[in-house]
Design a protein that fits this description.
Mean pLDDT: 89
Order of helices and strands: HHEHEEHEHHEEHHHHHEHEEEEEEEEHEE
Structural class: alpha/beta
Distance between the termini: 64 Å
CATH class: Alpha Beta
Strand content: 15-25%
């Protein structure tokens, strides 16, 4: 027999709106879950003891040149202007000419003696806290495919982003905040796919702050706050939740609707903490200067870096900040200098601030782009896309400090020793968080999926 549909009259709706103004509102504001109902982003136990609790991903959109930043190549300087003495890849994004030296000098930094270019003097001064991966490689020469490969592990299929996988595996440490936040993300080159949850429950997708041309100092979380009193909001949510759960009772489990219910509840709870974080409340003048908020050139990215620290220390598992556009097919000397000038001080400030607060040891900071750039010249003053070898660095979170792993050839064209594929990078990041990348799976469309697909090796040589 078909179950009778229970109609909700206008009078019943008004009655429900009048309920729960006291303790229920307070309980929700304090992040207390409904009895017997666990939040889908509640904190979870990792597979094994973690070295890091959270990740800050500092993403350089467009592909910064590794041979102009962190991969010093004296032979490139010596042979600049000569043809590359070995074959270029069969598939290239575009044609390039002869070898081209870096316009910047490199110098050693720290006790480890890491060679860093003059583009990043302040980050270079933190070299003893950095772990350089010098032979990272991907599989796609185009921005869109390369971004998706780096963020989701696949450049051909719709897959969950790494922040969503980490949210699914570990949840959040703070019930009043999302487990995954992305600040100023690009809306091109894969767009929302770079922070989406795909077939994972929608609760694990990234919460976006800014992006799409919104100035970072004006960016906020969409629809945060409003004109309604919290008690009225609570009553509205109770009514909406009743209606949605009644629907679930008729149709059965429906992950998208369940995630929508949770998203409304999370948005309500976020009002207790997120506005304060976004307002940079309580930061000293010294901290603001450390990040570069006092300089118009660095202020925008400084705000991103400072927000990343503030959200991370409040329990958000994965925070991504994005800067770009590092895609210099020409005018590399001018544009790389401008872009590095915008981020060097904020990045160094983030590292120093995390360390001073005792947070660096339990926070994995990951820096990199979707690929590097060719050691060969393109146009009059440019370099082409280069996924065959590029540099990524990590800091804190259980990696060896002041350490370099892997090497490219004498010109920086191909990785030659201790190469690290993007799948290996993902496997290592998950391992630092206490997650076995082969066990972190989700069944979809008849098979088990994971961030590393059917590959991936934990690079244990870089673990402290």
């Amino acid at each position: 027999m078909k179950e009778a549909t229970r109609e909700i009259t206008r009078r019943a709706a008004l009655q429900r709106l009048g309920l729960g103004f006291g303790g229920m509102a307070l309980a929700s504001l304090l992040g207390k879950a409904e009895a017997g109902v666990a939040s889908p982003i509640a904190a979870r136990t990792p597979h094994f003891a973690p070295r890091a609790k959270r990740v800050i991903f500092v993403f350089m959109h467009g592909g910064p040149s590794h041979v102009d930043t962190f991969d010093h190549k004296p032979m490139l300087e010596r042979d600049s202007g000569k043809p590359l003495p070995f074959a270029k890849p069969r598939v290239q994004f575009a044609q390039t000419g002869n070898l081209r030296r870096s316009p910047w000098d490199f110098r050693p930094y720290g006790q480890c003696g890491a060679m860093v270019s003059d583009l990043f003097p302040l980050t270079g001064a933190c070299a003893d806290d950095l772990c350089f991966l010098k032979a990272v490689h991907g599989t796609n020469e185009a921005h869109g495919g390369a971004l998706l490969k780096l963020h989701t592990g696949s450049d051909v299929s719709v897959r969950p982003s790494m922040g969503a996988w980490i949210s699914y595996g570990l949840g959040t440490e703070n019930a009043n905040l999302p487990s995954f936040i992305t600040i100023n993300p690009t809306l091109g080159h894969g767009g929302v796919g770079n922070w989406a949850s795909a077939f994972l429950p929608a609760s694990h997708q990234g919460t976006r702050i800014g992006g799409g041309g919104t100035p970072v100092d004006k960016a906020t979380i969409a629809h945060l706050g409003g004109v309604w009193d919290p008690a009225v909001q609570r009553a509205q949510l109770d009514l909406l939740g009743d209606l949605q759960r009644e629907h679930l009772g008729r149709v059965g489990a429906e992950s998208s609707l369940e995630a929508r219910i949770e998203s409304f509840e999370l948005a309500f709870r976020m009002q207790t903490e997120a506005p304060d974080i976004l307002a940079l409340t309580g930061e000293t003048e010294a901290t603001r200067k450390l990040y570069g908020l006092d300089d118009p050139k660095t202020a925008s990215f400084a705000r991103q870096c400072l927000l990343a620290r503030r959200f991370s220390e409040r329990g958000v598992r994965f925070v991504q900040i994005t800067h770009g556009y590092w895609d210099q097919h020409d005018d590399l000397t001018k544009e790389h200098a401008r872009l590095a000038g915008e981020v060097d001080r904020p990045i160094a400030g983030l590292l120093r601030d995390l360390k001073a607060r005792g947070l660096l040891d339990e926070t994995l900071v990951l820096w990199g782009g979707e690929f590097g750039r060719t050691p060969t010249l393109q146009g009059k003053d440019g370099r082409d896309h280069h996924p065959h070898a590029f540099t990524v660095w990590m800091a804190g979170g259980g990696v060896k400090a002041g350490f370099s792993y892997g090497a490219t050839d004498e010109y920086g064209f191909y990785g030659v020793t201790d190469k690290v594929h993007v799948h290996d990078l993902h496997a290592t990041m998950l391992a630092l968080l206490g997650l076995d990348h082969e066990r972190l799976t989700y069944r979809h469309a008849g098979r088990d999926f994971r961030l590393t697909d059917v590959a991936g090796r934990v690079v244990r040589e870089i673990l402290a």
